[in-house]
Design a protein that fits this description.
two-stranded antiparallel sheet; mainly alpha; 47 helices; about 1000 residues; about 0% strand; TPR-like_helical_dom_sf; Tetratricopeptide repeat protein; about 75% helix
Length: about 1000
């Protein structure tokens, strides 16, 4: 740590400390710096050190400490105001507002003292000539806090009516306070309207839009604007996560999780900030936090998870039920302290209301993965509603009748109904038919383990005098054997059953339904053989399967009537023909047949059976390039699956639809479906596989919409689960690439560089190196923006080598130009090195022009050369100092002018396509001529620009700007000529 020996060193140290993360370490350093300042013996040094200490306390969890340095500053002001410079005078009056809010946060400070302080603030502001706007804002805060609503409304109106001056809070902070009050008064829509300029980025500051995003969550949920609420949670939590002083805003995000079915994410938030349970420097934000914790824990307990271990105060382990009690008691105790100080019950009433809130959204997917989700809190896929409860449980006859009705109409809940029959039938004497049906459906439910039960059912059907149904049961058993890989044995079995059922039907010994069941089982088994056919036997297998399927259709057609089972046979056979067509390469025919099969299932009142075939149709349509048909099929699959879709199937359909929509540029709806896909993948326990891919896609769609903060949260959530083995290294690289772009847009350049370098390290191993070069170049840009100039130069050098190896002159030239600017910025005497690099860029362009493959390539290289001459001129001009009388500087400016002239000529050779490039260089040359005291030459450049745009579209923003700059240049040179004359 550098020793503080003078005032400048102290200021540098305070500036460095101010850039450190909020927290005790920064506060401790501020205390050391105050001691160093006192040793310097300069009053202003002490004043600035006290102001620095006060600031870091205010932006930390130790807000209670800021009263001491402020009291000392105020005493110094009263004793020797002349020791304060203009900035520190302003700062002293500015932090009066912090004191007012800070006193409200501390319940041990009497209300009378706060009111006295308010009067002191008003007096001192009046003496200093400041508007009363900040005073009325502070009065409003006091009145609103204690629950004096009439006074709060008066102060609120006076606050808005008073003039804004240098003591007023910034626009962003004022709008936050105004919107907060509207939300408190139940005017949520008005609150969001007031916050809109902050949410849209028009106004911002050190703590905004952080707090506005957090405050907007519950109002947006109450308004039903859940998509905005989700977006604000993802954006806002990213901002407050690293800021220790924002416990109140953090509590709003915990509350949001409790109100939207995201209890597991709420637990993760608590785990990230264990100190928030115990930090006592600001009791009011602690009250907000523990109230939100109580709300979340009550919700978990209500969901049956009261015994689950949860993050809590570090002194012990906690269950949700225990922490709910603890947090509630602490919240009420803190509220009581404030109420005792305030002489009202207002704080306790509001805290009780907050903890009693009910979820505002049953399920709001966020797109980010939550680790260790509470299983009981997870939303399962919807299922068909159970029969309404009655005073008396249905008896066995009623259960049998309901099960048969469901079976005859092929309802998805038939298996469960037969299971209920089976349970009710234990110990009851039943006839053979009843026992046969119970065994038959039990076998269907068991899958491969049910083969013996099919035989038992067949024997019971025979005993009951139904030989056709006995054959059908054995046929079902044969098909199950085929599913387990015993295709040959299944074919042997089904052959005999096929002969028997046809003979029986011919003798009127059985009906259409039973015969169709055997024929369909045979077709299914032959379809299995197609999929497992060895090389050389495919044609035979295909032919046999097609014949069997067509036999089903021929037998059933004309005999279905209203029999749902028989209608389903027709539709399934049609789908089998579609599958066979696809296997033989008839994609269009397959698509048509799948569409017919789906339509027949829907027409039979069995839409849930259509889902599989609509999904297959979507895949074929996509293959044929018919994205509109693919989209329709996927939407139909989701609609027809309804409440019967399993979570995995629902995730897959949403993801397919997201990819189709994304491919057509409909990124907003694509993002919605990717969001749903991620949610249902998590529900299915496939977070690491299907869920990670859905998050990868979702992040990309959000990037397209320039929703960078949301995209970054989603992509960071996806990265730990994405792997080259499961998802491909291309997906990993793309996710890192997108994330780097997001972080760059958000100004987090160091992390952006890290992500881009990680992606480049993977792409380095790829045969094609263009992506590697691009990522190395982007990483260099991020390193430069992060101030890591040596690393940036190294990365640009590597990128340049890659561009050269790829024969990409444009990339090479841009890397050289970037290195030139870096050299000028960071090297002592770097002007020569910078000029050398820029000259190298010119040489590369010129050499490439001689070898241009075609006219289009030549035109692009000419434009690159013009841009390089322009930047060379800018660089040379930038390297010159202000004193134009110095010969060396004048020489540099002449050289810069020569480069600008070359840029003008090069751009002019491209005609209208490079008009803006030429006029930009003309103006730069004109300003250089003006700096060299050549007004006539400067004016000539300005007139050339005006002439170039004489017939241009006046609505073009660039045209307007260039014209205005040319007019300004003419005014400047006229003044030069007048002064010179």
């Amino acid at each position: 740590m550098t020793e503080i020996t003078d005032f400048d060193a102290l200021r540098r140290a305070m500036a460095e400390n101010g850039e450190q993360p909020e927290g005790p370490a920064r506060n401790a350093r501020a205390e050391q710096l105050l001691a160093e300042a006192e040793r310097l013996g300069e009053p202003l040094a002490v004043i600035e050190a006290l102001g620095h200490q006060l600031k870091v306390y205010n932006y930390s969890s130790e807000k209670a400490k800021m009263f001491v340095p402020f009291a000392r500053l105020l005493r110094m002001w009263d004793e020797r105001p002349e020791d304060f410079d203009e900035y520190e005078t302003h700062s002293l009056h500015w932090v009066f507002k912090w004191m007012s809010a800070g006193m409200l946060d501390q319940p041990h400070i009497p209300l009378a003292s706060i009111e006295k302080w308010l009067g002191e603030m008003e007096h001192r502001y009046r003496l200093a000539g400041h508007s009363e706007r900040a005073v009325r804002s502070a009065e409003f805060s006091v009145a609103a806090h204690v629950g004096d609503l009439e006074r709060a409304e008066r102060a609120y109106a006076a606050w808005l009516a008073a003039d804004r001056d240098s003591m007023a809070d910034c626009h962003a902070c004022e709008l936050h306070g105004q919107g907060w009050w509207q939300a408190v008064r139940g005017r949520d829509a008005e609150a969001v309207r007031l916050w809109r300029p902050v949410l849209d980025g028009e106004y911002s500051c050190a703590h905004e839009p952080h707090t506005v995003l957090a405050s907007s969550l519950a109002p947006l949920l109450r308004l039903g604007r859940v998509d905005e609420a989700r977006a604000n949670h993802l954006r806002g939590f990213r901002l407050v996560r690293p800021m220790e002083s924002m416990r109140g805003a953090y509590a709003d995000h915990v509350e949001f999780c409790a109100l939207t079915g995201n209890e597991a994410r709420g637990l993760e938030l608590l785990a990230e900030r264990p100190a928030y349970f115990t930090d006592d420097g600001q009791p009011r934000s602690r009250l907000d936090f523990v109230a939100a914790v109580a709300l979340l824990m009550d919700r978990l307990t209500e969901l049956g998870l009261g015994g689950q271990r949860v993050p809590g105060p570090a002194d012990r382990t906690w269950t949700a039920r225990e922490l709910a009690v603890h947090a509630r008691e602490e919240a009420l105790a803190l509220a009581a302290r404030f109420d005792e100080r305030n002489g009202t019950s207002y704080t306790s009433e509001r805290v009780v209301q907050r903890m009693a809130q009910r979820p505002l959204v049953e399920r709001l997917p966020l797109g980010v993965r939550t680790a260790n989700r509470p299983a009981s809190a997870a939303s399962a896929a919807p299922v068909a509603s159970a029969p309404e409860a009655t005073d008396e449980a249905p008896g066995l006859p009623e259960l049998l009748a309901e099960a048969r009705r469901l079976s005859d109409t092929l309802r998805p809940s038939a298996i469960e109904a037969w299971a209920a029959v089976s349970r009710a039938a234990e110990g009851v004497e039943l006839d053979a038919r009843d026992r046969a049906e119970i065994a038959d459906h039990r076998a269907m439910d068991l899958g491969p383990e049910g083969v013996p039960l099919f035989e038992e059912a067949a024997a019971l059907y025979a005993e009951a005098g139904d030989p056709g149904e006995a054959l059908a049961a054995r046929a079902r058993g044969a098909y199950v054997r085929a599913l387990t890989g015993e295709v040959s044995a299944a074919l042997d079995a089904i052959g005999a059953l096929y002969d028997q059922v046809l003979a029986l039907y011919a003798e009127d010994g059985t009906g259409v339904r039973q015969t169709a069941a055997v024929l369909m089982s045979r077709a299914r088994i032959l379809m299995r053989r197609v999929h497992e056919a060895e090389e050389g036997t495919e044609a035979t297998a295909l032919s046999a399967a097609e014949s069997a399927v067509r036999e089903v259709l021929a037998f059933v057609s004309g005999r279905t009537g209203d029999d749902v089972r028989l209608l389903a046979r027709v539709a399934e056979a049609r789908a089998m023909l579609a599958e066979l067509a696809a296997l033989t390469g008839d994609v269009e025919g397959a698509a048509e047949l799948f569409a017919r099969a789906s339509g027949e299932f829907v027409g039979a009142g069995l839409p849930w059976f259509a889902v599989e075939y609509e999904a297959r149709l979507a895949g074929l349509a996509h293959h044929l390039g018919d994205t509109a048909r693919a989209e329709r099929a996927l939407r139909a699959a989701l609609q027809h699956g309804g409440p019967y879709l399993e979570a995995t199937g629902r995730a897959q359909l949403h993801l397919q639809l997201a990819e189709v929509l994304g491919g057509t540029g409909v990124s907003e709806e694509a993002a919605e479906h990717a969001l749903e896909a991620a949610h249902w993948a998590d529900e299915a326990g496939e977070s690491r596989t299907l869920g990670a891919w859905a998050r990868h896609q979702l992040g990309g769609f959000l990037v397209r919409q320039q929703r960078f903060a949301e995209a970054a949260e989603v992509l960071e959530s996806a990265l730990p689960d994405l792997s080259a083995e499961t998802h491909g290294d291309g997906a990993v690289v793309q996710t890192l690439w997108w994330l780097g772009d997001c972080l760059s847009e958000l100004g987090d350049h160091r992390d952006a560089a890290e992500r881009r370098l990680q992606a480049a390290a993977i792409a380095r191993e790829w045969p094609e190196q263009h992506d590697h070069a691009t990522l190395a170049h982007l990483a260099a840009e991020s390193l430069g923006h992060a101030g890591l100039h040596t690393d940036a130069d190294r990365a640009y050098t590597r990128a340049g080598e890659l561009w050269r190896s790829l024969g990409n002159v444009h990339g090479l030239v841009r890397s050289l130009r970037a290195r030139a600017w870096l050299a000028l910025r960071v090297e002592d005497g770097g002007g020569a090195r910078a000029a050398e690099l820029m000259a190298g860029a010119v040489e590369e362009c010129t050499a490439a022009l001689d070898e241009a493959a075609d006219e289009e390539a030549r035109q692009r290289l000419v434009a690159e050369l013009g841009q390089t001459h322009r930047q060379f001129g800018d660089l040379l001009a930038r390297s010159a100092a202000e004193d134009a009388e110095d010969d060396s500087i004048r020489t540099a400016m002449e050289e810069a002018l020569a480069q600008m002239a070359r840029a003008v000529a090069v751009f002019a050779s491209l005609g209208e396509d490079a008009l803006h490039g030429r006029t930009g260089a003309e103006l730069a040359a004109g300003w250089l001529q003006a700096d060299l005291s050549r007004p006539a030459e400067a004016a000539a450049h300005a007139r050339a620009v005006l002439s170039a745009y004489e017939d241009a579209d006046p609505r073009d923003e660039t045209v307007r700007q260039r014209r205005a700059e040319a007019e300004q240049m003419l005014q400047v040179v006229e003044e030069q000529e007048r002064d010179g004359g």
